[in-house]
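[SOLVED] Predicted holo structure with potassium ion

Edit: marking solved, answer below. Original request kept for reference. I posted the sequence and ligand SMILES and asked for the 3D complex as structure tokens.
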Amino acid sequence: MRGVWTPDRIRAAEERLFEAVAEPVVMRRAANGVALHVRRLLGERAGGVAGRHVTLLVGAGNNGGDALWAGALLRGRGVGVTAVLLAPDRTHGEGLRALRAAGGRALAAEGSSGLTSEAVGALRRGDVVVDGVVGLSARGGLRPLAAEAVGHVGAPVVAVDLPSGVDPATGLVEGPAVSAEVTVTFGGLKPCHVLEEGAARSGRVRLVDIGLIPYLDEPDFTVLDPEDAGAAWPVPSPEDDKYSQGVLGVAAGSASFPGAAMLTAGGAVRTASGMVRYAGPAADAVRESWPEIVATGSVGDTGRVQAWAVGPGIGTGSNGREVLARVLEEARPVVADADAITLLARDAALWDARDPETPLVLTPHDGEFARLAGERPEDRVAAARETARRYGVLLLLKGNSTVVAAPDGRVLVHPSGHAWPATAGSGDVLTGMLGKLLAAGVEPLRACGCAVLVHARAAEIAATGSAEHGGRAPRVGGDEEGRAERTVGAPIGASALLAAVPAAIREVRAAATASVR
Ligand SMILES: NC(=O)C1=CN([C@@H]2O[C@H](COP(=O)(O)OP(=O)(O)OC[C@H]3O[C@@H](n4cnc5c(N)ncnc54)[C@H](O)[C@@H]3O)[C@@H](O)[C@H]2O)[C@@H](O)CC1
Ligand SMILES: [K+]
């Protein structure tokens, strides 16, 4: 599990760190980390380090200072280094002196008519380009000169701290911005690494220890790693029987639309052993597809369950309303999706059926969220947190980065790093998976994080056929250099995602086993 801290909290921790350790020492640590990851990328993409060329794009502040110091260290490894200075009169002085003393070159980016031809040549020559334009103090998109310079970059980019042009606190991009292959950040992750467009533009995020950790407060939110999901995933123990592992009730689909029932129930079956019960008009179809499921026609006829998954395909009319009300009255943990969210958003009386002490998870996409909250989410973490608190629910806001907020303010984010789950029926599978984890007794916030992570990975495995990597490096963190990120994929349907769930579970469980060795 990794923490994510807002820029303000990072700065406050840095101030405390500087009382104990001199700032240049800290910067040198940061630069060491940048140089290490530039060397790795050179090895990967240029076949070696010595004799290769690195171009530094350097802005006005300490972010550029980090890049210059890293350049000086790379010179020591036989790398040719050229710094292109976007603001020569405000360049980090010590960093520039260090680079020149190590034999690096520096030139001004701007001539009398925009970017000079020397600067363009340097940007085109780099085997790797280091983005030291702007870091934690970034405001808005790249300024025109920096944007023009970035436009000439064809080589892979290592971003210092964050890809320039991305808002550090939100991950939003409001103008031109850098797209990095690797982002090297310091002390702790920032929201831009895992949220919105910033997550995609950060590429592989590498965290460097600069001694900041003891000075950090509680993170603003957290990110689960595959090994966290693997460690929490329920598997049967020798004492278990089919009931003791948690029974899930599924209320989904209809006679004319049995697909939602099939996918929700299937998500549950593939997630954990034990038992799944189905209640609804698609009972015959469900029995046929999933003979292991005990299927009945109505919620009232279903035997005991430890949790319910309700909503996909139940409709928003009186039948759907009745099903949802019956499920809520049972006072068991519930995951409510799709039509159930629409019903809850427009019918305040339905909330009376609910026991406020029993966990209720709502899993909206942005449109369903707008029905609940009155508007589409802008700052997704803040919006999910506020809505979770207001309704007293766990709010799982789906998106490329999925945000899960608990009513007590805790938040988990999962940056999927790809969009393969964006296919019809995929949400139904997630609902079944999450329901089964709740039935198995996994703590609700963690259950949400685990289900989202494994669901996203299953989609990726289905699309890319990459299961053979057996425990791919996580996008955020990890030492292994990514390979699967460049795997070419093919579009999938939700059935293919569902079929890949066991492979994804095996992968996270293998990651958990490896991490305790
Ligand atoms: N506080 C510290 O001493 C440490 C800072 N570190 C580095 O320092 C960075 C923060 O440095 P600074 O606070 O000096 O500021 P930055 O280097 O992030 O920004 C410098 C200046 O760029 C300008 N700017 C803002 N938005 C811009 C945009 N969109 N396009 C172009 N220019 C823009 C502003 O004038 C800003 O003051 C971190 O991101 C990290 O890389 C690390 O060395 C670790 C320790
Ligand atoms: K940067």
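OP edit: The chain has two domains: 2-221, 226-516. Thanks to everyone who chimed in.
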